[in-house]
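TEACHING EXERCISE
Course module: macromolecular assemblies
Task: Read the component lines below, then compare them to the predicted structure of the full complex.
Student: A.B.
Group: 4
Components provided:
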Amino acid sequence: MKHTPVYGLMAEFANPTDIVEAARRTHEAGYRKIDAYSPFPIEELAEAIGFHNDGVALITLVGGLIGMCAGYSLQYWIHAINYPINVGGRPLNSWPAFIVVTFEMTILFAGLSAVFGMLALNGLPMPYHPVFNVPRFVFATKDRFFLIIFSSDVKYDPVETRRFLESFSPRSISEVPS
Amino acid sequence: MDQQIPTKERRKAPVIAPGHTFGTITDQISSIVLTRPVSNGWLVGFGVSALVTMMLLYAVGYLFLRGVGIWGVNIPIGWGFAIVNFVWWIGIGHAGTLISAILLLLRQPWRNSINRFAEAMTLFAVSCAGLFPILHLGRPWLAYWLFPYPNSMNYWPQFRSPLVWDVFAVSTYFTISLVFWFIGLIPDLATLRDRAESRWAAMIYGILAMGWRGSARHWKRYDKAYLLLAGLATPLVLSVHTVVSFDFAVAIVPGWHTTIFPPYFVAGAIYSGFAMVLMLAIPIRKIYGLEDFITLRHLDNSAKVMLATGLIVAYGYAIEAFMGWYSGNHFDAFLLSNRLHGPYRFTYYALLFCNIVFPQLLWIRKWRIKPLRLFLVSGVVLVGMWLERFVIVVVSLHRDFLASSWGMYYPTKWDWMTYIGTIGFFLAAFFLFVRILPMISIFEMRTLLPEAEVKEAE
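Instructor-supplied answer key:
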């Protein structure tokens, strides 16, 4: 028997309450390779699909610390090592004067780490993704909410999974071609 | 829910007009960009501001040819319009970050409808601001010498100088504001990509949206990154104007060398920034029919912020005057009398009127919620804040310690052309922005709706 490869099954919902409920029950039913799409951030939704640790905070912290060290050591190296200027015997490592730039570099590195770290963890930019093949998916950026069970999930079964999704009485169910 | 809201709350205008759904918000905001025809008013507005931008390019071109001698600057007034305008513009930018970052951390959801264009305002204002110190360098084409980079001269910037701190503060501020603004745009760009009817528009918005699809995992990381950026931008924005004030306060010139400068500069920055936000928001909500999203509540709240920061500024002036007398320092006392009786006294009186006397009208509710009146107050405040910087820069410099080194500063037509030119550039960029990008954050507006809340399962 020949099948077109299927990426997953997608169910459409009309409000956040329904999708959070459906996502929670899907996760409870043992499905792990699932995802949900919404037009605005819903805190409960990430929890419902079992996603907790986002990693952005750690990247930001590390970025900020790198920026801090880089900012201070740059000034130290310039003013104390590479080009020391003795002005009336004042200390070369005049740290209070170096705080401002150190602070700005900390913020700069932390901020850029947060942004690029978030994008990298999200795998963006990614112009093509199979979910875009579903015609109804354009409403995911407007007023519709989608739950997908990927075909790579061990529990995935074309018939059973569809029946399972139908039990939530979604607005529509579509097969996502891969 | 309704009966729990106290009556006082109920009298307040809502943050978003009733009757909207996810769909209507999306359609109304995205249609301004996608389907609304270009109006004659827009063409005229953009055309005029583009012409004024050309004047800026002309003035800057001539400056490159002849040098800063074409300006009115001299010794002792080495910092003329360039620094006045720099501080004025960068102050205006601060309101955008305050709205987008600080009000986010303070959980003020009313900010959601004005943060996008306030951030755009920040970017354009900081661009205008950054121009002035560079033009003022004398040899602006060597501006990259301000950054530490390995070079054959074995030359480095002096990191003990506030002017170098300023380079780092302003460039960091611009960079962080840019990424903050762009990150905020990504989900809305995806909305535009999916709504666009023309293939080209869909492609361009699609590339910018980077394949955003609103996955719950993505949203979670996105929210975290957004919140962290807000947390980082908050001390950043306070540091930027603090560092700008260090440019003055670290010097020993009377009128500059004071510890009140950092807080009073930051308050003044937010004061003028909110004035600019209102001057942009009031016409925009009218022209683009956004009264449902930018409601009287927003005008009222912004006016209150202006009133509060204006009073801090007034306190700053009072302390300056008090210290002139109380310090017993001859030069500080002279500064005060020079402000009150010197050749530039009109600027000081005008400043007191524009920044302190006139805005007290905002205590009256009518002046806060009648758009035209509020527009007038905002304009007066912007003029006043510009005068404040004029008083700080020019009036302090023109008569310092030795009477033999006193002088006068008269701006030339090139000064005025450069200043007015940047206003043209600012407006031209803003005209483009309202037509190309959603000026209100669509996804954040959706979260304001009651149906955005997840109800607990029974």
